[in-house]
Every structure is written in C-alpha cells, then in structure tokens.
C-alpha cells in the first residue's frame, strides 16, 4: 500500500540551546514507510557512527524508521523551512506541507 501524506510536527519557534524534536508519521503505508527530512528543500543527511570531519557540523539525529528529527541544541543556523517525505517503495512518495522553524 502506498503511503498517505504524512503528518509533520515542527515547532514554529525554539530557543537557542534547547532540545527540539520534530516528528513525521503516516499510518497507511505497507510495508511501513521510511521518512526523509528536508531543510530549505535539501535532504538532511543521516548521521552515521563514523563521525568524519564532514559530519562534525551535524547537530541533529534523524531516524528514518520512526520519522523523528532530534536537535540536541538548536542554533540560529537551524532556522529554516522543514518538511518530511514518506516512502515505502510503493506508489509515489508523499510530503507534508513545509513548516518554518525560527530559532
């Protein structure tokens, strides 16, 4: 079953240095969807355990299975427009509407 449009939870504002968790969920897809977050139209990288220099400036943890995007400490750099895409390899992937977070 193709995924339906996911529901995205993105706070409209956050204080610098606080923990912010965004969530994305859809329940129709079978097999269960994987979720990809985007910021300002660019796909966010999934942080891996290798922790190379390139990943050093990644301040979030993205879980493709649960659809959560967790910022341990948000900075002004995290201000932007976020949306998430659900896909399970069946039918078209579905995106939620873009939501802006101001830090």
Automatic annotation (TrEMBL):
<keyword id="KW-0732">Signal</keyword>
<keyword id="KW-0812">Transmembrane</keyword>
<dbReference type="GO" id="GO:0005886">
    <property type="term" value="C:plasma membrane"/>
</dbReference>
<dbReference type="InterPro" id="IPR036179">
    <property type="entry name" value="Ig-like_dom_sf"/>
</dbReference>
<keyword id="KW-1003">Cell membrane</keyword>
<keyword id="KW-1015">Disulfide bond</keyword>
<dbReference type="GO" id="GO:0005923">
    <property type="term" value="C:bicellular tight junction"/>
</dbReference>
<dbReference type="InterPro" id="IPR042625">
    <property type="entry name" value="JAM2"/>
</dbReference>
<dbReference type="InterPro" id="IPR007110">
    <property type="entry name" value="Ig-like_dom"/>
</dbReference>
<protein>
    <submittedName>
        <fullName>JAM2 protein</fullName>
    </submittedName>
</protein>
<dbReference type="InterPro" id="IPR003598">
    <property type="entry name" value="Ig_sub2"/>
</dbReference>
<comment type="similarity">
    <text>Belongs to the immunoglobulin superfamily.</text>
</comment>
<dbReference type="Pfam" id="PF13927">
    <property type="entry name" value="Ig_3"/>
</dbReference>
<keyword id="KW-0393">Immunoglobulin domain</keyword>
<keyword id="KW-1133">Transmembrane helix</keyword>
<feature type="domain" description="Ig-like">
    <location>
        <begin position="3"/>
        <end position="103"/>
    </location>
</feature>
<dbReference type="GO" id="GO:0009986">
    <property type="term" value="C:cell surface"/>
</dbReference>
<dbReference type="InterPro" id="IPR013783">
    <property type="entry name" value="Ig-like_fold"/>
</dbReference>
<keyword id="KW-0472">Membrane</keyword>
<dbReference type="GO" id="GO:0098636">
    <property type="term" value="C:protein complex involved in cell adhesion"/>
</dbReference>
<dbReference type="GO" id="GO:0007159">
    <property type="term" value="P:leukocyte cell-cell adhesion"/>
</dbReference>
<dbReference type="InterPro" id="IPR003599">
    <property type="entry name" value="Ig_sub"/>
</dbReference>
<keyword id="KW-0965">Cell junction</keyword>
<keyword id="KW-0796">Tight junction</keyword>
